[in-house]
Each structure stands twice: as C-alpha cells, then as structure tokens.
Design a protein that fits this description.
788 residues, Glutaredoxin, five-stranded mixed sheet, 41% helix, disordered N terminus, 14% strand
Length: 788
Amino acid sequence: MAGSNMNPPLAVMAVVVLSVLLAGTSHAAPEMDPYKILGVTRSASQAEIKKVYKRLAKEWHPDKNKDPGAEDMFIKITKSYEILSSEDRRANYDRYGQTDDTQAYSSSRYRHRQDNFYFDESFFNFPFNTKNHRDFTDSKYTLHFSQYVSEVVPDSYRRPYLIKITSDWCFSCIHIEPVWKEVVQEMEGLGVGIGVVDVGYERRLSNHLGAHRTPSILGVISGKVTFFHYAVAKEHLRQFVEDLLPQRVVERITDKNEQQFLNSWHELNKPHVLLFDQVPAVPLLFKLAAFAYKDYLQFGYVDQGLAETAELQKRFNINTYAPTMLVFKENTDKPADIIQAKGMKKQIIDEFMSNNKFLLAPRLVNQKLFDELCPVKQFHRRRKYCVLLMTTDEETYSSGNQEFLSFASTNTRDVVRFAYVYQRLQQPLCDILMHSEDSSQSTPQVVILERRNTAGKALFKPVTAWNGSEEDKLRLLEELERLQKDPSILIHDAMLPELNNEFASMFVVRWIYASYDYLSEVIDDILHNNWREMMPLLSLIFSALFILFGTVVIQAFSDSSEDKQMKPKVKDGTKAENGSSGSRPPKKNFVEVTELTDITYFSNLVKLRPGHINIVLVLTDASKNILLSKFAKEVYSFTGTQTLHFSFLNLDKHGEWMSTLLEYAQDAAQIDADEDDSGSRKTDYTGFVLALNGHKKYLCLFKPVYTGEDLDGKSSEDEAGMSVGKPRPGSRDGHPQRKSSRSRSTSTLQIHHKLDRLGLWMERLMEGTLPRYYVPAWPGLDKITPSK
C-alpha cells in the first residue's frame, strides 16, 4: 500500500525531469547547421568556405533568383558564412553546437561607422530574417560605364545626379535602403537623376568615379563628382543635392533691385523669370528648374514674407495664397506669361519654361542660339523661316530697332521667327546676306532666310532697307504673306559662316567661378575625407615640397660654397691662379667669347678679379669665323671652371696693342726668337692665344702649330720637330718654299689647324706648368683703341 502510494509522485517527478531535459536538449539544438547549408565538411579551410559562399551568394541573390524562398536562403547562407568565417564562433559551434544567433543579433545597440556613413545600428544588429528591411529595386537605376559617359555626364549639365555605390556583399548598404528609397522617390519627382553602381559588376565605372568603398553616395553635376560625407538621412541628402547647385543660379529680388534685374534682358539677351512664394528659402524645385534652363532664362525669387517686397507684389497684383511665376521679355512693365498654382509640379514648370525660352526678337549672339531659333529644314516638319534684321547698336538706329521689335510682337505665325544681329559683331554673316564687302558701314536691312542643311546652306531674300517706317512694315508684311503662298520667292542661296560667340569674353568670369567652386570642393574634401584615404595624396604633396625645398637649399649652399672657393687663399694662391683645382663639367652647351675692346678692357683685364685668367684668342677679320669655331671646340671642356674667361683680340683693329704687350714682357727676346734673323718680315700673330692674369700681371703664350698633313705630304710628326711657331724654311727635298698664292681651301685648312694643340696647352695651363712672362704694366688704353 505504501509502495503504491509513492509511485505516482515518482512518476510525476520523472515526467518533469524528462520534460526539462527534453526542453534543454531542444533549446541546445541548433536552429541550423552552417556546414550543411554551405555544403562543406567540418575540416574545410577558410579559402574553401569563402569560395563556396561566393558561389551560393550569387546563385541565391534575390536580384538574380526569382524563387520565393531565395531571400530566406540568401540570409541563411550569409549567417552560415558569418559563423564559419570567424574562428571563435566556429569553434564555439563545433564544441557546443551553438550559433550564438541570439547573442550576436540581439546585443545592445552600437553606433557604427562604415566608411563615410554613420549608422544608428550595428551591423550585427540588423534583422536579416525580416524581408521589409531589404530593397532590391535598384536594377532600374543601374549604370554602366558607357551609359555614364554618353548619357549621364552630358545630362548632368542640365540636372544633378545622385548615385549610390553598392555591391552584392555590402551588408552595411542594407541599412541605408529605407532612407535611399524615400529620397529617390522625392528627388526623382523634382527632376534629379538617380543612378546605382554595383562595384562587383562595374569596377571600371567605380574607379572612374573614385569610389573605392561601399556604401558610398555621390553627386554629379556639370561633369563634376562630389562625395556625400554625412549621416544618411533624408534631410542631409536633400541638402546635399541643394548644395550641388551653383549658388548664383537664382537671384533674390526685392523692391530695390527689381528694376535692375528686369532691365538686364537686353544685356543678357534672355527673358527673366520671377517666382513669388511665402517661404524664406528658395524652393528646391525652382532651383532645379533654374539650373536646367540657365542657358535660356534668368531667374529671380521674391519672398512674399518680407516687407521689402511689398511694392513689387502690389505692382503685379500677386496672390499671396499660392506660388506665382511670371516671365518678362522685352516689356518689363507687363509679364509676357504667368502661372499660378498651389502644388506646382515639375511637368507644369517645364512646359512653362519651354514656351518662354526666347525673347520676341532676340539677338543672335552665337551659333547655338541661331540653330534653335532658325532650325534646319526637315522633310517631316513644316518649313521654318527667320526674319533677320541686320542693324547696329548706334543711338541713331534705336528707333528703327524698336519698331522692328514692335512688329515682331504682333507676329502670330508659328513658322516665322524674328531676330536681329549687330553688323559690327557678326560681320561675316552680314557681308554675305547684304552682298557687301563691308557691311559695318551699311544701313540696317531686313532679310528672310530658310536654312537648308547643317553645313550652312541657306535660301534668302533681301526685303528692304529698314528704318522702322510704315512703308517698311507694309513691305515686310506683304513679303511674309507671299512667302506663305510661294516659298520659291527666296531666290538667293549662300553658305552661311558660323556665328561669332559674343559672350566669349565672359570666359574669364566663368573661369573664376569654376576655380572658386573647385577650391571649395577641395577644402570640403580635406575637412570631411577619411585621413587614411588622404594619406597617399598628402604623402605625394609633402614629398614634392620636400624635394623642391631640398633642391633650393642645396643649390643655395652650393652657390655660396662656389663663391667661397673663388676667393683665393694666401696659402694656395699659386694653385688658384693656375687652376690646379681642376676643371668642372661645362654648365652650358656653348662658349661665351667676348671681344677685347676699349669698352671691355678694364673689366676683362686690368680689373680682373684675383685668381681669374682671361684666355684671349688673337685673330683677324679674314680668319675670325674659322678660328672662333675651332677655339670654341678646344676650350669647351674647360668652360665649367669659374676662374676662366674667354675673349678674342682683332689684329686688324688692335694690332699695335699686341706688339706693345710683347715688348713689355721681361722675356721678349725669348718670345721673338722665332722671328726671322733678318727681321724683314713682320710677325703674324694670327692663331696666338694669351692667358692673361690681370692681377698678377703675367701672361702665358700659345703659338700655333700645324699638325695636319700639308700639300707636300709632310706629316704632323715631321713638323712637330720644327720650332714652335717658326715659319717653314722649305720642303724636305730642298725644293723652294711654296708661294703665298695658294688656293683658298689650302689657306683655310692651315688656319683651321693652327689651334690643333690648344687643348693640350690648356691642360698644362690648368696644371700650372706653363712658363710665365711678367709685364710691368698692361699697355695703355691708347694702344687698345682702334686707330682712325
């Protein structure tokens, strides 16, 4: 009985324990097997796991796999790879069979920074198993390199583009999807271009844009790329798009500057648009429209909440309950068109702008405007005619120009456009249409023309000389009516030249604005870029500055050291004088040779710096060119020496100075020993070279030696045995000496060879082994001055 009473409690206890164990076992059981999902063994390496993961991720990516369970499978594959790619988490799973899914994905929230973006959630806090947090609708905005170059860049001159850089394995990109989707819907409605670049498939385009990390967001406007550096929020992205636009695209208008703004239509050759609204800031939609039509219209914004705009609102009777847009053309007192609506849409604004792109009679200022006003005839379109007034900007013709504008304002024909040109600024065009060689002096004239092809062919007919009279208007009206019935009245044809760009002078202003925008962009990049990304650029800049600075410093020190070396020291004055320090490599590819005259006498000789030597070549007018060329070749290798100067002395001008110098020399007998004993022949100093030390008052002398073979076949070795500079007594066979009537070629050859051994003599001069001839004083100035 007792035993039977104890059995039920034991049974209940056993059931409870078994339930707890089963619950613990079921709780401990893994929700998934990462090895099984990826299809790898437990001994698989990290490389194998990564390879399998990439293959499965591509296969099950929701963009490429339309299976309903593809997204769930993709998330499982991703979570399995996260477990097995981490050594700690993989070891934890192998030991305890736990994936730490709850711990990993339910931990406390962190503020996580990924590249240039700040996220409110950590990567590991993202709910992968929730489908609503991911958006794979970017395929309609996907950009390719060729599409970007051919479509996006040209279109960016009319509207900005917002581009997202992403990839298949960028899990941080998923965090910005909700914000990105909301911003895309708003911006696309305002006219902003949208693009998505997948780094995995468009590596070339991402490199071209300079986007090397995902996720990244950038803007493109006028072909210029600007990166977004702030937290991914709708307000920040909206402000980013607004900052992309030029600051001067819309001008704020008040009662003070209203007249100046509207009256600038003649100077700018554009209609002017005014938007009246209650908000203080210019609406982004209006800014985008202004940027799109900046080449055709000038835009201004009036804040209706300011007291400074009350007169303007009263003048045009503006309704304060809805935004109002006015367009003004030549008449600034009355708007040419008006639109008012509470919810202005982009389509309405675009239609309004397109219908008012041109003045009633605009001035043709460039070829682009000419092409749009007077388009080339197309077979599937109606003919387009252009009534062109060729006039001047002189005050005497202003009334006629005004009457032409008045006549154009009454035009109701869609096929006829009115325009005018200034003869002074578009003279080539006017010369052809007016059949005049100088149209700038002609009176104003009206022609009707029709363009036939893009090469410039046009049919035209001169109508009348124009002064704005009623007869002129009547005649023009009759011709237009005839033209409507019979287009063949355009009897003249011509090839029209391309129009001059009258606004080309504004290039400097545009360049200044572009430079300002570029500097602003550089400063913004420096302030916001990741310094790790900036390190290569900073390293390059500092390396260039270091090299430049180092080069300047080294050059400065080397110049100062050269100046010090040029000053002779007392101990080795002899070496400095003889240049025993050796010659330096030439610094120039030519030899500077100056003539020794009464002007250069003192600087090149008398007051020559201590230790400096002037090498003087003695020549005549007849031998000047030959000897100077040979002299330059022989001494070129010594031009690097700072203590050597090179000059030449013309015997025809200063022959007396040469004779006087040799008479002053202490060893004059030795110098003149080579002269003939009879003394009947005057010594020929042509080809002599003097090394003159102006400070020490001595000279070294080089006397020419002919080393080539003469016409008698005498070798250089035979002549080398002769006395230096001694005239040849005769031939080796006893034949009499040749007469002085040799041919010019023979004489030229001998003069050329007079300096053959000058190089060896220069080396001895540098070594200090040449004999020196001292003089008590240098010959006076009267000896160097040419005789009358």
